[in-house]
């Protein structure tokens, strides 16, 4: 992050100089573009269900708010729905609007389905996974599956062979089973992450530490990255701080887990085939009796989580590292930091970390409403 410095890039979209700039007036704070490796949509549109134009709008919404590297996330769905969806989302990657696709399911544990459709969950199926990889046309970058699913090691082998991150989650596995799959994945040369750590998995218990302990230990050893939805809804801020202190911010990846309601008003939405109600910014599955359903994705953006955690006491540099570590998880070494030679993915914010402008590869991607002042913060 830079303050009171001038950053320049050339026609190739690479940073060529960073120089001090003397100024008496307040200057925007410059941050590296943020990464979100788990995102189901925004601006009223859903990556699992919207048409191509709607998916473009969702991707551009998050880009305008500083997420310059995005994985578009699916949900568990029957093959006849999932495979065409992967083909559609591959078009976003081909257009440069995403860094690829994250398939959340369908090889997960039904007892930990969360906001996934239980009828669409299936046992690990290497044949179906090969079809998913093919449908994504080389753009499948991560897949969430449960360590205890059938053929888990074959799924890992396919991930290692196709540069797909092994993201473990929606699981009821114990610590030993989780550690065994982590060990196998690391030995196979696959990158490993935890899908929204603590959510959709058994809670940490002193006699049954479960997948949380196994994944956290792996992160502390530099063998895994743990996703944290650091929005104050999915995780308490104290838990976020604890995980970051234990594993270090470079092993933590802030993710939005956003659904269509991100950037929108409260109301009724869909997440895949499931109905969702958003009230006071919290998305939950609709239930027949009106009682609170399972949390159904997020409504924040990654920059919102950076701002929240800084207000909670985080050092800004650490928060930015947690919001850019997704680049390293994906092997994108040319972005996620402001240095000469890096791609000019840059976010300018005010002193309160509200975004003002976003550049991707040196190209200004800021919509007119943000250039005129973010309506969410007018009068604040």
From TrEMBL:
SUPFAM superfamilies: Metallo-dependent hydrolases (SSF51556). Gene3D superfamilies: Metal-dependent hydrolases (3.20.20.140), Urease, subunit C, domain 1 (2.30.40.10). Pfam families: Amidohydro_1. Substrate binds at residues 115, 199-200, 207, 234, 295-297. Keywords: Carbohydrate metabolism, Hydrolase, Metal-binding. Residues 30-361 form the Amidohydrolase-related domain. It comes from the Bacteria. One of its GO terms (biological process) is N-acetylglucosamine catabolic process. The active site is at residue 257. Its cofactor is a divalent metal cation. Binds 1 divalent metal cation per subunit. Zn(2+) binds at residues 104, 170, 196. Belongs to the metallo-dependent hydrolases superfamily. NagA family. This is Amidohydrolase family protein. It comes from Corynebacterium lizhenjunii.
């Amino acid at each position: 992050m830079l303050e009171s410095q001038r950053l320049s890039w050339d026609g190739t979209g690479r940073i060529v100089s960073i120089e001090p700039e003397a100024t008496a007036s307040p200057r925007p704070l410059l941050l590296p573009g943020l990464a979100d490796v788990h995102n189901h949509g925004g601006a009223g549109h859903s990556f699992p269900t919207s048409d191509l134009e709607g998916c473009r709008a969702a991707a551009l919404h998050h880009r305008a708010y500083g997420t310059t590297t995005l994985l578009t996330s699916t949900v568990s769905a029957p093959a006849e729905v999932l495979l065409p969806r992967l083909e559609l989302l591959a078009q976003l990657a081909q257009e440069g609007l995403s860094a690829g696709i994250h398939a959340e399911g369908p090889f997960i544990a039904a007892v930990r389905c969360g906001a996934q459709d239980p009828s669409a969950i299936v046992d690990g199926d290497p044949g179906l996974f090969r079809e998913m990889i093919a449908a994504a046309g080389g753009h499948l970058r991560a897949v969430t599956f449960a360590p205890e699913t059938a053929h888990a090691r074959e799924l890992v082998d396919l991930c290692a062979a196709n540069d797909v991150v092994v993201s473990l989650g929606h699981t009821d596995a114990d610590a030993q089973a989780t550690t065994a799959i982590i060990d196998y994945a690391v030995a196979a040369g696959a990158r490993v992450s935890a899908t929204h750590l603590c959510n959709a998995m058994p809670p940490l218990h002193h006699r049954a530490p479960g997948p949380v302990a196994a994944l956290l230990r792996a992160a502390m050893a530099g063998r895994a990255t743990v996703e944290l939805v650091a929005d104050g809804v999915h995780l308490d801020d104290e838990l976020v701080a604890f995980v970051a202190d234990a594993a270090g911010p470079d092993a933590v990846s802030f993710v939005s887990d956003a659904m269509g309601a991100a950037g929108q008003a409260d109301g009724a939405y869909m997440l895949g085939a499931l109905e969702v109600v958003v009230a006071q910014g919290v998305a939950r599955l609709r239930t027949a009796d009106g009682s609170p359903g399972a949390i159904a994705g997020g409504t924040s953006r990654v920059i919102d989580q950076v701002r929240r955690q800084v207000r909670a006491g985080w050092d800004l540099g650490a928060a930015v590292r947690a919001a850019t570590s997704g680049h390293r998880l994906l092997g994108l070494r040319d972005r996620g930091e402001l240095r000469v030679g890096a791609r000019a993915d840059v976010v300018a914010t005010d002193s309160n970390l509200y975004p003002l402008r976003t550049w991707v590869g040196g190209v200004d991607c800021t919509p007119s409403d943000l250039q005129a002042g973010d309506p969410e913060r007018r009068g604040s």
